[in-house]
Known about the structure:
Blueprint: E1 2-6, H1 9-12, H2 19-23, E2 27-31, H3 40-46, E3 52-55, H4 62-70, E4 75-78, H5 88-94, E5 98-100, H6 106-121, H7 124-132, E6 148-152, H8 156-167, E7 171-175, E8 189-190, E9 202-205, H9 219-224, E10 229-233, H10 242-251, E11 254-259, E12 279-281, H11 290-307
Parallel strand pairs: 1-2, 1-3, 3-4, 4-5, 6-7, 6-9, 7-8, 9-10, 10-11, 11-12
Amino acid sequence: MKDVLVTCPPMLGQIDRFMDFAAERGLRLHPAQVTQILSEAELQALLPGYDGWIIGDDPATRAVFEAGQAGRLRAAVKWGIGVDNVDFNACKDLGIPIINTPQMFGTEVADVATAFVIGLARQLFVIDRGVRNGDWPKPAGISLVGRTVGVIGLGDIGRNLVTRLQALGMQVIAYDPGVEGDAGIAGLGRAAWPAQVEACDFLVFTCALNRHNHHMLNADVLARCRPGVRIVNVARGPLIDEAALVAALQSGHVHSAALDVFEVEPLPMDSPLRGMERCIFGSHNGSNSVDAVIRASHTAIERLASFLPETATEEA
Length: 316
């Protein structure tokens, strides 16, 4: 048996489901004690004792992989889609095979993004909080039919989101320099970021984070947006300059925001976002359905086992 450290919170939440599945493939899973991520120092101390690593959103840096390789670490899999926290070049240099699990959560995260759009449009969060406090609020929301939404990212999540928003009667402008044309979706508008943000009633971020799009929604772009724009982020926190967003929320230029992700996670207790009443917050949990976690975890285990083929004949 090969020993595998698991640091991905959604997988950890169902870890008992995967023990036998992994054992049948020669892997012994070891769940980490973690809420969101382990620190670089914690990983450097832990990884040398394991043959494999199923990575969450932890800082999978060169220093971490070097520490692991100095011990037993021989392979890794990034659980999920996003890889911005993983130094793939370091793995290549060190000869550590690594891969992620793409095309796993498009429908699940798109569902959450759609729920956020509806929640912001009809101010469902205001109603819920008011009723809980003994009030009976009746805020006037906005209708979605005929509204324009900018979807930033046309990957698996983005494409699934577009079809949902179109079914609600919304007009979609999609932004993604890596995808040409209408991506096979009839009626889809296209633009190069940040062109046409002035036309958008909503902006929804579904793209991967890279060195080119850090803080792509900043003070300058927000100033171009129409007053009352609503912002949704189910992708990565650093796509948005949170300080600029807070200022725009405080001024009323941005009506409201729904954020499943943040620049620092978990959201610090002293973050000014906590004082923004017209916000819905998530816990970087958009992909976390029972079905999707099983699907992605099985894939991660199988891919890691393929990197360690000798495990099939070893005794525990």
